[in-house]
Amino acid sequence: MKAITLVFSSFSDSFKVIKDAGLRKFYFLPGIISMFLFGGFIYLGEYLSLNLASALENFFKLQEYGSILYIFIKILVWICTVFFYYLVYKSLLLVIISPILGYVSERVETHLTGKKFDFTFKDNLRFLIRGIDIGLKSFFKQMVGTCVVMLLGFIFPINLSIPLLIFIIQGYFTGFSFMDYTLERYNLSPKESLDFLKKQRVYAALCGGIFTLLFFIPVVGIFIAPLITCVATTMITLELLKEHSKV
User: Fold this and answer.
1) Where would you find this protein in the cell (predicted)?
2) What 8-state DSSP symbol labels residue 158?
3) In this structure, what are the phi and psi dihedrals at residue 174, rounded to the nearest 5 degrees?
4) Most CB contacts within 10 A, which of 45, 46, 156, 183?
């Protein structure tokens, strides 16, 4: 209950923090990058999806099945393709904008605590490399976890909870990426960050889950989701660090 209260209050307060800290312009930059990336994925997705569907159709000789089963299999292939592209698109987007979100997280902490940061170019380059490293690792872990859950879908009653399990897995690793923007400023190694997140997995899953819900709001979502989630998650992570006497 405490986790839910802290997460939702932080997301609610994030709008005021964005306004007071002068971060409104950061709605647009991640959104513009996201739109270009989304356009590229739509173009590639249409091309690759058609080729994939045709290849599977010929390989499994789907035409030989009944019309209803044939349509069902084609829809299933389309859903799996869209889902895969979403995972790649979201993970790639977070990797590309990680320097922006890292800076936003820093500004939020300065606004809330008055603490100043004077990072050198070398520090910023290290943060960028770390963001890419964690983003790629999170992506592969998400893919493995998602595949395991989908394989378990053949077991009843686990198959009834597949959408929820996938949502939780996606939320956890997405939340981890956002929380790490704050953890890296306190010189926690990737392993230490992961250990910290394992203890706070509920917070990570809730933050990542809200990001996913915001992200799926048509048009507006790609602009507001990264900034709001980054600000709220920074506030949450700072509070958790205080409780663990790491600040």
Assistant:
1) Membrane
2) G
3) -70, -45
4) 183
Q: Which residue has the higher pLDDT, 70 or 34?
A: 34
CA distance 28 to 170: 24
Peptide bond into 157 cis (omega under 30): yes
pLDDT surpassing 80 at residue 74 = no
78: closest CA among 95, 53, 101, 96? 53
Mean pLDDT of the chain: 80
Burial of 173 (0-12, 13-18, 19+ CB in 10 A): buried
Q: 221-243 vs 28-59: helix axis angle to the nearest 10?
A: 110
Contact 84, 157 (CB under 8 A): no
Cα–Cα distances in angstroms (integers) from residue 227 to residues 11, 80, 89, 90, 130, in the given order:
11, 28, 17, 14, 20
Residue 43: CB atoms within 10 A of its CB come to 10
User: How far apart, in Å, are the Cα atoms of 112 and each of 17, 78, 117?
Assistant: 8, 45, 13
pTM score of the predicted model: 0.81
Instruction: Return the pLDDT at 148.
Output: 80
Q: How many CA atoms lie within 13 A of 121 on its CB side?
A: 0
d(CA 194, CA 208): 15
pLDDT at 247: 47
Tokens of 60: 């499994």
Structure tokens at 185: 């400023």
Are 89 and 139 in contact by the 8 Å Cβ rule? The answer is no
